[in-house]
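Quick start: what a row looks like.
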Amino acid sequence: MASSDLEQLCSHINEKIGNIKKTLSLRNCGQEPTLKTILNKIGDEIIVVNELLNKLELEIQYQEQTNSSLKELFECLEEDYKDVEHLKENIPPHLPQVTVTQNFVNGSDLDPEEPVKVEEPAPTKKPSKEQKNVKEMPFITSDEFNGIPAYMKSRLTYCQINDVIKEINKAVVSKYKILHQPKKSMSSVARNLYHRFIDEETKETKGHYFVVEADIKEFTALKVDKRFHVILNILRHCRRLSEVRGGGLTRYIIT
C-alpha cells in the first residue's frame, strides 16, 4: 500500500472518530438541565420561524396572483384605450358638431338667480337638388368583431377591418359624387367614369349604392388581394354588404 493511500485512510478514520465524539458530546448536553432549557427555547423559536415562513409563502402567492390580475386589467384597459382612440379618429361626419357659445372662464361672473339663456343653433340650409346623401357602410362594433368566427378573421384586427370600411366608403362617396355631378361640368376623365358607372348598373342594383373592384383601385390605395377578399367575406358575414354578379363583374352593394 502506498504511503499516500495510508495517510488518506488514517485521515478518514480520524474524521469518523471526531464525528462520534461530537455526537456523544451533544447527546450528553441534552441531559444537562441548563442546556436542556436552552435547547427547548431554540426549538420553540424554530417553530415560530417556521410559522413565519409559511405566512411569508402565502403572502408571496397572494402578491403573484394580484400581479397577474393587474397585468390582465392593464391589457384590457390598453385595448379599451385603442378602441377609444379609433372612435375618436373616425367620428362619422354626419354627427352634429357641438359649439360653445358662452365662456365660463370665471364662474363668479354668472348670477345664480338669473336663468341661463341657451342660444338655439341656426337652422341648417337645405341641400340643393344636386347634393344627395350617399349611403355609407357603418363601422364594425367591438361586439360584432368578437362574434366573428376565429377561422374567418384569422389574424385580422378590429382596426384593420374598419380601415377597409373607411376606404370602401371613400370609394362610394367619390363614385356617386361623379354620378350626381352635372354633365356639363364634368372633365373628360369624369365623363368616362360616369359612362362606366352607368354601364355597370343592373336591375338588382337599382336604388342601391354599390362599387366594383375598379372603383376601389380608382379611388383608394387598397390592394385588391387575398386579404381584401377575406375582409369582404367578414363584411358579408356582418351584413355590411352583399354581392351581385353578372357580366364578369362582382358588384358590392352597401346594405
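That is the whole record. Strands lie at 210-211, 241-246, 249-254. The longest helix spans residues 33-89.
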